[in-house]
Amino acid sequence: MSDGSLTQDEIDALLQGSSGFDLGQAGGGGPAAGGEAADLGPLKALLEGAIPAMASNLSLLVSKTAEISPPTVEVTDRDGLALELDDEVVLVSQNFSDGLLGTHFFILPRDSAASIAGLMMGQGEVELNEAALSALQESISQISGPLLTALGDRLKSMVMTDPAEALLVSRDDLACPDGDFVVASYPVAIEGEVPAKILEIFTLEQAADIAGKGGAGPAPKAAAPQKPAPGRAPTPPGAFPGPGAAPGYRAPSGSGGMHPPSVQPVQFPGLQQGHTASEHGNISLLMDVYMEMTVELGRTKKLIKEILGMGEGTIIELDKLAGEPVDILVNHKLIAKGEVVVIDENFGVRVTEIVSLMERMKDLT
Fold it and tell me: How does residue 307 score in pLDDT terms, banded at 50, 70 and 90?
């Protein structure tokens, strides 16, 4: 009859079977970096906060109302993920390159990927050829934009990714991070289309970085009041000790001595003038004013005789190399740089860099 204690074999079996994560999915629950359970709360909150902007961007891309519901965020492994996937999926890799580092990608069901690509191309559901995969790369870049902004705000640094790359792969050929990782599952509903789920993959190290940064630090401790020395009364505000008097001494009332005036520290105004409330309010009067925005592919200089000699088919060589960012100008002033994209057979520009104030000032001189 057992006395209620556990044998060493039973203890070992319990330790090996413990998951560290109470998520209830196959394979989930490995320890995060440092041997501690991953704190998925901050990541989940960050993803939920970015959802409205993500859904808005998707709606613009497909020209239909799109809704993205709050994701479930779990820890799993390759085997656990495979249970959720069809035989073929579209993998859109978008690895982190700055701010966060490491593997990061999205997984779309094949049918949903074809539907989104078709809506973007204005052709209904299409075959997942090179053009369709290119459209999916663009869609993920646009959808993930608000998420990257939210990550940057939390981590107090700019978060950048490699260019998105879409591939049609089989479930068995899907490359996943080693061991356990984090999967966020977004329910997506597009008007008139079959509901689907888009999966986003993070490593445990990335989840730990998100959980460990961006939180408010401990509140500073208030300075403890100083106690007066024994036998000495504290000096009241405005009192001024006489010559040779010990600290805390105050001349008794009626002593006939003159009380020196109270000395107040001089307060100087700040060197940087802040914006007043009225200035912030006045800017709203300009919000509906149109400004001309242009995109400049490049420039060159030609002799008058070369210009007069131009005809149909003449090729003009510009001062920029293929693949270089194009200039974005507002009222002919450079404000940003970007890359050319194609949306619904129209050209567009994705902003990749905001020009610094110093560079803008150079254009004014």
Answer: confident
**Residue 146 domain flag:** yes
Cβ count within 10 A of residue 88: 15
CA distance linking residue 258 with residue 252, whole number of Å: 11
> Helix 110-121 crosses helix 130-155 at what angle (to 10 degrees)?
100
In angstroms, rounded to a whole number, what is the distance separating the alpha carbons of residues 182 and 81? 10
In angstroms, the first-to-last Cα distance of the chain is 93
Q: What are phi and psi of 181, to 5 degrees?
A: -150, 175
Tell me what percent of the chain is helix, strand and coil, each rounded to the nearest 5: 30, 20, 50
Note the residue count of the chain. Answer: 365
> What angle, 0 to 180 degrees and rounded to 10, lies between the N-to-C axes of helices 41-62 and 130-155?
140
CATH number at residue 137: 3.40.1550.10
Rounded Cα–Cα distance for residues 159 and 163 (Å): 13
Place of tokens 């010990």: 246
Residue 218 has pLDDT above 50, yes or no: no
Count: domains in the chain: 2
- For residues 123-149, give the mean pLDDT: 87
What are the beta bridge partners of residue 102?
A: 96
- Domain limits at 297? 291-307+320-365
**pLDDT band at 69; cut points 50, 70, 90:** very high
- Residues 78 and 188 both lie in one domain: yes
For the cut 90, the answer to whether the pLDDT of residue 47 exceeds it is yes
Q: What is the pTM of this model?
A: 0.51
